[in-house]
Structures are given as structure tokens and as C-alpha cells.
Write the C-alpha cells for this entry.
Amino acid sequence: MDGRFSTVPLRYLAARHSLVGIVHSAPRRQSRGLFWNYLRGNPGAGNLHRFADYYKCPYLSVGSTYNVELVQFLEYLKPDIFCLSNFAVILPPTIYEIPKYGTINLHLSKLPHYRGPMPWLWMFYDGVKQGGITVHQLDDGEDSGPILLQEDFEIPDNASAGELADMVLPQAADMLVRAVDSIALGTADPQPQPSKEGTRRARFLRPHENLIDWDSWDCERVGAFLRGASTWYEAFPPFPGFSREFLPGERGPVKGRPGQLVWRPGGGWVVCRDGRVPVRLHPEYDELVRICWPPALAAALYYLL
């Protein structure tokens, strides 16, 4: 999908191997109503498309299911290997077996733990201190194919997803390149995954699902989760034209009910059972422009006409 979880590995691959094509996987549509859809816009061609233009690669965007176009695209390109990173579609053998050396996937957890589409969200939810990276071959299951490479990484306290990505993505991209190198040299040694029994599946969230137990979670856990998972999880209604940054939880007396979002001049906080989680607002300029130009245009037309 668009974003640096795909473009960083692609950039590392492009520095060592020849890219013959790029496939964009459209994310699942999550409508928040006409107003919010309008504010957040529809950027159309995202950074993967621009990446393909820069490297002069053929480009294809696919929806939530595979289609004939993708088969034709791969058969036309005849790639030696198909590399996936942050890809939202589960591919059947009729597609992942097309390349000469098959298909491999970069997954940001230590499989079989947190297999599925949202590993970091559920790692932040569980409050784990150690994550992992896996490069594996594709098979018929969900993130279940034989492992080519696997490494650990530490998750700092109160890290945001962006901060963790800064730390982890170069390591993950380097692993993907090393896996491709080993396949090209014939030295790859894929190993079957351990049993997935007792491991968590990192599933998609259900609509309006509440993940926080306000009565039992302390402010440190609430703050760490909101700070880490805010890329994928919105615990509160959106604030027009602004994004929220959650800070580490602070213990102490606070008025209000747990789960209440309080705003005051200069900032705000989320009330917890034993303290609060401070919140900062950051302007989203594209959204602010979309908010401001209709009334500005209406006022201009009013005075002109």
C-alpha cells in the first residue's frame, strides 16, 4: 500500500536489484461519512505511483481481491520474484507461483506471532516490549509460509508508530534485500513456521470497536496504547483540521470520568482512572484548506454579486 512501509523496502531493493514493476494494493475503504471523507480527501495516485514514475516501472493498482489484470500484469513482466510489503491482498497460488522464484513477504512481527494485517496495533495493545521481523515465502495460509529470515527488535517505552518505523524499517528493508540475495545465489534455507497455537492473530478492527478498558487500564497503559496505535485506531471522534498526539500517561488526581476527553486553552487530556493522558493538536493543512475554501468562496461571491 502507499506509505513508507512499502517505499522504504522498495528503495533498498532498487539500490541492489532491478525493479520490473510495482503493484499497489488499495486499502480497505472505511467510510466516516461524507463530511470526513471530504476533509481527508482522495489523493488518487499516491507515493507508490510516484515511485514507479521515478524508476520508470510499470504500475498496477488492485482492489481487495485479485483479478485477471494482476495475472496478466505478472505474466507480461515475467519477474524473477514477487516481493510483498504492507500488501492488503491474500494471493492464491495462481498468482504467487507465477514468478520464477515465487513470492516472498516482509511481515513486521516474529511469525507466527501477530500474523495478519495489523501486527503493530495488537503489539501496542498487548504492551509487548520485543517485536520481530520476518521474511517468508508465501503459501495458501495467512502469513504462514516457510521462514527465510527472522530478527528481533526492542520496542521503546511510549514509542509512537512513526518513531518505531524510523527505527525498524531500515532493518526490515535490509532483511528483505538479504532474502532476495540468498534466493538469487541459491543459498536460501526456508524453514517451516512453529505452531501458531496460543499466538494472537492481528486481525482488522471491527467498526466502532472499543479496545480500551477504561475501568481497569491505568494511565500508563492507556497513554502507551493511544500513542502507539493512533495510526490505525481512533478512540475519539476526529477533530476537524487537526491530528492528535498522545503523550505518556501521568498519574495523579483528575476530575471527570475515565475515557472523557477534556479540552482547555493550550491543550487537553484524556481522563483515566488513576491520572490522565495529555493530548496535543497538530494542524493538518490539507484538511484546513478543505474546511476554509467553501465559506471563503461563498463570501467572495456574496460580496462580488
About this structure: The longest strand covers residues 275-283. The radius of gyration is 22 Å. The chain has two domains: 4-185, 219-288. The first helix runs from residue 4 to 14.
